[in-house]
Amino acid sequence: MGPRQLAVRRLPEAPPRPRSRCASLRGVADEVYTGKAPADSTLNSGWLLGHFLPPDDPRHSDEVEIKWGAHPAGEERAEWVRGEARKSLAVLVSGRFRLRFPDRDALLSEPGDYVVWGKGVDHSWVAEQDSVVLIVRWPSVPGYKVGSRDAVHMQDAV
Known about the structure:
This protein is mainly β. About 5% of the residues lie in helices and about 30% in strands. The strands form three sheets. It has a five-stranded antiparallel β-sheet with strand order 3-4-10-5-8. It has a domain at about 45-140: Jelly Rolls (Sandwich), CATH 2.60.120.
């Protein structure tokens, strides 16, 4: 008996996609945006997505906020974030980053390490090495921006 032959079925090719660089793709209900997180993050203190972007921007969301946080070694949160009203997820992209909580620390030391904390959990942080951290918060709540008179804490913080 010879080797078994496997039938290979080819899928139809997808239509060609328009190429875009760091710009919104018009069409598809204006809901597609491509960008570069390191460049785009410099525009809003690291924040790439959330309620604070214009309503007609595909990155506007009342449900979630996403931050590309680039922190040099030694950078530290000057004061604790208190009274957090959202849940948060921090994922280490590169470097070594320590999140501080009232009863423990969470050290993110390998790419992909992450920590999740809930509403009401106070926190602070320090970048032990040059670090990039992807932050996801939900929901996206107004009133957390630096300098906001009604701010519970600073949006610039992790």
